[in-house]
Every structure is written in C-alpha cells, then in structure tokens.
Amino acid sequence: MNDDELAKAWAMLTAQLTNAAGQVDALSEGRDPSERAEGYRFLMRILVAMTEFQVEQEADAPSLVQIMSPIRKFFVDNPDTLYHRATLNPALRYRIHGQRGEELYLAFCLYGLRGRTNCILANLCDGEMEFDDNGRFELVLSAERPDGVQNWVQLDNVASTLVTRQYFTDIRKKPAELNIELLDDIAPPPAPTVEGVTHRLRALSQSVSRTFKSTQLASEAWMKQPNTVGINSTVEGLNSLFPTPDNEYVGGWYKLEEDEALVMEGRAPECRYWSVQLCSRWLESRDFVNRQIILNHSQVKLETDGSFRIVVAHRDLDEPNQLDTAGHREGGVIFRWLLPAGKWSQPEFRVEKL
After folding, report:
1. Hey, which of 192, 208, 242, 268 has its CA 20 to 30 A from 2?
2. Backbone phi, then psi, for 65, in 5-degree steps?
3. Which of 97, 95, 181, 102 is closest to 142 using CA atoms?
4. How many whole angstroms separate alpha carbon 67 and alpha carbon 85?
5. Is pLDDT above 90 for 235?
6. Count of alpha carbons within 13 Å of 214, Cβ hemisphere only?
7. Distances in whole angstroms, Cα of residue 191 to Cα of each of 56, 58, 87, 188
C-alpha cells in the first residue's frame, strides 16, 4: 500500500460527508428549517463519535468510552441510560471487572456484522450474573469458556463491539465502576502507519454511512403513519439501531398543529424500568437538559386504576404527565419496557384539539 491509498481513503470520507449533507438537504426540503439545521449538526456529531470509535479505540488496547451525552446522540438514545462502548477482536480474550453502583440495571451486549447486517450476538444482564457481597464482579469475554469463570460471554467470530448499559430513574445517581483489560499478552499498539490509518479512515467512512442510512430508513418508516402506534420491537431493521434484547419498544411519530395534542393512554407491564421520550427526525433524544422530553416510571403519575395518560403538546397544558415538543411540530415518541413480565398491550394514541 502506498500514500495514494491513504489519500483515496481521505477523499472517500470527505465525499461521503458531502453526499450525506446533500441527503440532509433533500430529506428536509419543504419541511421546518430547524430539521435541516439539526441534520447538519447530526452529521457533525456522528462524525465525532465514529472517529472516536473507529479511529481511536483499539481492540488490542481496549477501553470503555462513554457513547452518549447531552451533545452526542443517535439511534434514539435514552437519557436515563449510561452507555459505554469497547472495540473487540474475537480472537482475543478480555476481562471486565468492577463494582455495582446505584444503577437499577446493568448489562453487556455484543454486536457484530453478518454480511452488511448488524446483529445482536449475545447479551448478559445483572440478573444472570454473579456478584460478591459488595457488588464486585468479573466478566470474561472469549471464544471458549475458561475454567472456573462465573460470568462469561462467548465471543462470536464476528463480534466487534461491546455496549454496556446502566439504567437509572435519576441519572445523577452513582454509576457502576467498569474496567476492561486484555487477558492476552501482546505488544502495545504500534505507531501509526499508512496502512493502519488508511484502514481506519475507510472504517470511519463506512461507519458514518451506515449510521446515517440506518437513521434515514428508520425515521422514514416511522413517519409514514403519524399519530399512531407504528413502531414495535418486531420492526424490520431495528437491529441496525443497536437495540438491547432486554427491551420491548413501542411508539410512533407525532405530527401536531399548534392547537393539537397527542394523548397516549395505556397500562405498562410489570418491568424493571419503563419510560417514554421524544426524539428528532435524526433519532436524537430532544433537549433533556432544559426540557421535559422524557418520563420514566418513577415520574409518571398513574390514574387510580393503574393506567397512564401522557400528553405531547407544544404548550404547557397543566397536565401531570406532559412531554415538551419545544415547538417541533413533528418527532418520534418511543416507549421502552425493560425486562417486561408476561403479555402487554400497546398504548393507544389519539389527537385532541385544545
């Protein structure tokens, strides 16, 4: 490989960004101008995120980096969840160790590509793990189970990504302590090479492209039937959004005039956690720092019969359970049921004039 390949990889990345910007323009044509602005911001955000994941993270020098934040979002991030990510090599062995904090759920999920399709390869949550009396634990990721290991996840031969999830009803609570290390004795990563950086640039370009494409396809599917329940865990292509198998998802797309509100009524199943939140056309959670765009089970005020009534509206209606659109006439709304018990019914959506 020569320097020309490095230049070609860079040109491919910049061309991909230019193409994606053109798609943002086309997808937002004739719509609210803020959607186009959010689209450009979304491209910048995923470029930064994917650069960290594809260029900076090393499978042979593993690290757990925080995925989402108030200014880095994609794939319908949950503001009540702390996500970390590690890049893996299925030929190597890894040890994760740490101690539980005040999270109400902790899990480790493996993902990988089969062909061009992202797949959930394995998932292990706290209910399936062994902890000592102080909440300490060790977890091994490897192709074969070592003797005497209590907590183990098998590395499929296409495993490339580990995502950890911690759920909270209050994100200010103390998180679990998580550390990852390599069990194999190998040399430290070498200095950058033309071949290595070329490979990473190509991976970055592909990752940005996949993230944008998955976002586009999912949002277009959700927008087809506004103000109805049109999203659930059986939706084709949901795996491209890196979901967890411990969640059941249900929701839809709201489209409201100034004098309209979306009323969502139903009954949540028994589960470890549930919430409902708003997201943008680009599948980013709305501004959860300054506005009420999410309600979890500890915040929802139930009716006397145990059911819920949650309202989405552009202005304050003095409702006990209301989500703030911040003036966005359209957007996604998604419920998460975490580890639900038994059968559950979809909520009902209807539009009411104010």
Report:
1. 208
2. -110, 145
3. 95
4. 6
5. no
6. 24
7. 12, 12, 19, 9
Q: Give the integer Cα–Cα distance in Å for 180 and 89.
A: 13
Counting every residue written for the chain, the total comes to: 354
> Of 345, 222, 351, nearest to 278 (Cα)?
222
**Together in a domain, 134 and 245:** no
Domain boundary among 182, 197, 212: 182
Q: Clarify whether residues 12 and 130 are in a common domain.
A: yes
| DSSP H helical ranges for the chain | 3-28, 33-51, 194-223
**Same domain, yes or no: 232 and 130:** no
Q: How confident is the model at residue 24 (pLDDT cuts 50, 70, 90)?
A: very high
Report which of 166, 126, 168, 104 is spatially closest to residue 299, judged by C-alpha positions. Answer: 168
Residue 239's pLDDT is what? 77
d(CA 248, CA 344): 10
Give the number of other Cβ atoms within 10 Å of residue 294's Cβ. 20
